[in-house]
Design brief:
heterodimer, A: 114 residues, mainly beta, six-stranded mixed beta sheet, five-stranded antiparallel beta sheet, 11 strands, 0% helix, B: 115 residues, seven-stranded mixed beta sheet, four-stranded antiparallel beta sheet, globular
Chain lengths: 114, 115
């Protein structure tokens, strides 16, 4: 069975500062990894995904994540935070053999200070 | 193109009642999955349907059931509602099942409040 741990339920950053959200996963086989963003009272929007191609994945809105197998990590970064980045972010893992169902972490809420 | 649509967007039910939530996937998508997101937590997998057959079930009681129709839309049913069933219920659609490069697209969710 796979699992996801997101370190830090809340992160506060200043506008223009680096955003770093941490995600570690556990899986018996190489997984697919995803980052989703959720704005208040909305569904989930895919930011980026890793599906065993390039380990550095670029997504929408200037976000990127790096898959590190040795560290079982898939941390999300953005060089310069914008006020519109305030939202909740979820890391998720799926396995092709399990029908691609998603297992989510607990989420990290990002607050952006002006 | 329409995305994943869910109805209703909000509803309030009383303990012990029954509820039906509906989901229409993106045109051409044959797989629908349901997730429960309790306030302050990540979504939890409930069911996955592909080609009208159940392909996966999460750790939820038998009060939860679902089905998929010939047009690939889906219903999630919850019987004997408990206060703890209050949550945002998310529907996700994807092209297929167990594919290499697949992506799940989520609807806006149905906010269920049980009082």
């Amino acid at each position: 069975a796979q699992s996801v741990t997101q370190l830090g339920s809340h992160v506060s950053v200043s506008e223009g500062a680096l955003v770093l959200l941490r995600c570690n996963y556990s899986s018996s086989v190489p997984p697919y990894l995803f980052w989703y963003v959720q704005y208040p009272n909305q569904g989930l929007q895919l930011l980026l995904k890793y599906t065993s191609a390039a380990t550095l994945v670029k997504g929408i809105n200037g976000f990127e994540a790096e898959f590190k197998k040795s560290e079982t990590s898939f941390h999300l970064t953005k060089p310069s935070a914008h006020m519109s980045d305030a939202a909740e972010y979820f890391c998720a893992v799926s396995l092709k053999a399990a029908g691609n169902k998603l297992t989510f972490g607990g989420g990290t809420r990002v607050l952006v200070k002006p | 193109d329409a995305g994943v649509t869910q109805s209703p967007t909000h509803l309030i039910k009383t303990r012990g009642q029954h509820v039906t939530l509906r989901c229409s996937p993106i045109s051409g998508h044959k797989s629908v999955s349901w997730y429960q997101q309790v306030l302050g937590q990540g979504p939890q997998f409930i069911f996955q349907y592909y080609e009208k057959e159940e392909r996966g079930r999460g750790n939820f009681p038998d009060r939860f059931s679902a089905r998929q129709f010939p047009n690939y839309s889906s219903e999630l049913n919850v019987n004997a509602l408990l206060l703890g069933d209050s949550a945002l219920y998310l529907c996700a659609s994807s092209l297929g099942y167990g594919q290499t490069n697949t992506e799940a697209f989520f609807g806006q969710g149905t906010r269920l409040t049980v009082v």
